[in-house]
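FAQ

Q: What does a record look like?
A: Structure on top, sequence underneath. For example:
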């Protein structure tokens, strides 16, 4: 069985203790990973601090070049990394609408290239006989990155490339459920990066806590649940670390009566069910105008019944298993609540009886706000479709949530849809699509879905502090 080690200060580091990594399509472990303690956290932060002095002074162009080289390494090693992602997350290699491990690799490569090329220009505020005043961006120091299990490599890339690009050094702790692609990515990146610039420690939440409360860490970038995000905010207060928190979402979509139901049903289905619903910005609550409610429900249920669920390594699999047993239990608990909440299951509703953590793609009608499946983030293949009498009611119910990550409006009239989308309480609103993030546009949550943004110029700025320089001339 393959064993994965950490990379600290440019060296491969193993530990006496290790933990098993499970393939969710089989429910059995297929690899092991080093289990770090605070000793390794201290060593990784120390290595990152030492490397920061030289790395932060490097000319920008050299760092950009190295980010492109990392993208090239991902491309060269794509088959190995994609297979590893499928084994550790369960997501298909290709998957529904091409959303799978290969796409995760392609996205990681694309994000790295685009982020490498983004500039943070100096802002000249005054330049006259009295004085020269400029504001410019400086790296923060050592960045701690904590990632979840759903898109392990892509989210690692989102955190790491932005932080390194502008001169920080990084210690990353991936999720204990899917640490392997990150451990391998860091190992590969260390073949081109100077020692200590990028380090990885592997272990559970207690290790993450040790890292985010470390006194020599300057910033934490975290993607994961709102509950953990709150703990991290508290842990980071000791030395007032900067924070970017990308947390849970319960994204709503509002569908107006003028849509072409047959045409948009597959798009809505893909937005809700890709990666088995285990994406932060998946569509999780669907508010549909009463005039088209029944026909859209029928289309979605028919799509759910056609989906090929299976082991992601098989080429025709569209949806894999839930990533872990706890997530399966969460989905089963929500499914069990449907009858009492007055819901009607139109497709699916049950665990699939085979090894691994499989659940049927499930579409549920007749629920509304105030029921568990609507109010809680399901993070699984189970979508509530809610009937509304008009657009304003849809908006009111969509905004009636503690989350505010993404949201969308679907209509043939883009003017009306845009006006409504602008009133959605979320970080990103889409018109006639949902969840299609891109590397040059900011992405983040409002309310309890997060603090700050990633991607593009705005995301890079969050990896820096603003430095003002004034030179007196008269
Ligand atoms: P999680 O919060 O359970 O774990 C995430 C990471 O935090 C893991 O690496 C874990 O080991 C670590 N951790 C746990 N306790 C910690 C602590 N006290 N201090 C520091 N680190 C700690 O999340 P998950 O179950 O892995 O991921 C699913 C959640 O992530 C969902 O809610 C989903 O919506 C969210 N998510 C959000 C985004 C986004 O961009 N907003 C993206 C992907 C996932």
């Amino acid at each position: 069985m393959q064993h994965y080690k950490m990379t600290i200060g440019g060296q491969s580091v193993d530990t006496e203790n290790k933990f098993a990594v499970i393939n969710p399509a089989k429910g059995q472990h297929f690899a092991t990973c080093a289990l770090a303690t605070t000793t390794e956290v201290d060593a990784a932060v120390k290595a990152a601090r030492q490397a920061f002095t030289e790395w932060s002074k490097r000319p920008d162009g050299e760092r950009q070049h190295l980010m492109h080289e990392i993208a090239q390494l991902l491309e060269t090693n794509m088959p190995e990394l994609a297979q590893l992602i499928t084994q550790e997350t369960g997501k298909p290699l290709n998957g529904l609408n091409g959303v799978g491990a290969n796409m995760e690799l392609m996205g990681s490569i694309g994000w790295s290239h685009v982020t490498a090329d983004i500039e943070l220009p100096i802002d000249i505020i005054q330049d006259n006989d009295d004085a020269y005043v400029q504001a410019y961006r400086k790296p923060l120091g050592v960045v701690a990155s904590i990632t979840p299990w759903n898109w392990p490599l892509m989210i690692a890339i989102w955190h790491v490339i932005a932080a390194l690009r502008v001169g920080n050094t990084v210690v990353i702790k991936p999720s204990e459920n899917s640490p392997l692609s990150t451990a391998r990515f860091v190992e590969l990146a260390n073949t081109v990066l100077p020692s200590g610039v990028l380090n990885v420690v592997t272990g559970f939440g207690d290790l993450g806590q040790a890292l985010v409360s470390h006194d020599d860490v300057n910033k934490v970038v975290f993607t994961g649940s709102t509950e953990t995000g709150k703990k991290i905010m508290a842990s980071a207060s000791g030395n007032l670390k900067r924070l970017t928190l990308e947390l849970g979402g319960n994204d709503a979509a509002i569908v107006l009566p003028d849509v072409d139901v047959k045409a948009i049903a597959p798009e809505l289905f893909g937005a809700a069910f890709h990666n088995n619903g285990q994406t932060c910005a998946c569509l999780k609550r669907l508010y549909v105008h009463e005039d088209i409610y029944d026909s859209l429900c029928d289309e979605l249920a028919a799509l759910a019944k056609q989906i090929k669920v299976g082991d992601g390594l098989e080429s025709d699999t569209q949806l894999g298993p839930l990533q872990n047993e706890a997530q399966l239990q969460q989905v089963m608990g929500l499914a069990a609540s449907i009858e009492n909440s007055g819901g009607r299951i139109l497709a699916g509703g049950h665990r699939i009886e085979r090894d691994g953590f499989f659940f049927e793609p499930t579409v549920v009608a007749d629920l509304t706000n105030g029921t568990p499946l609507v109010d809680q983030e399901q993070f699984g293949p189970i979508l509530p479709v809610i009937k509304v009498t008009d657009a304003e009611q849809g908006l009111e119910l969509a905004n009636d949530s503690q989350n505010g990550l993404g949201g969308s409006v679907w209509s043939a009239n883009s003017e009306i849809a845009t006006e409504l989308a602008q009133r959605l309480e979320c970080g990103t609103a889409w018109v006639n699509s949902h969840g299609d993030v891109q590397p040059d546009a900011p992405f983040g949550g409002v309310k309890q879905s997060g603090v700050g943004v990633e991607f593009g110029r705005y995301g890079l700025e969050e990896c820096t502090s603003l430095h003002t320089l004034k030179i007196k001339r008269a």
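Q: Is there anything notable about this one?
A: The mean pLDDT is 98.
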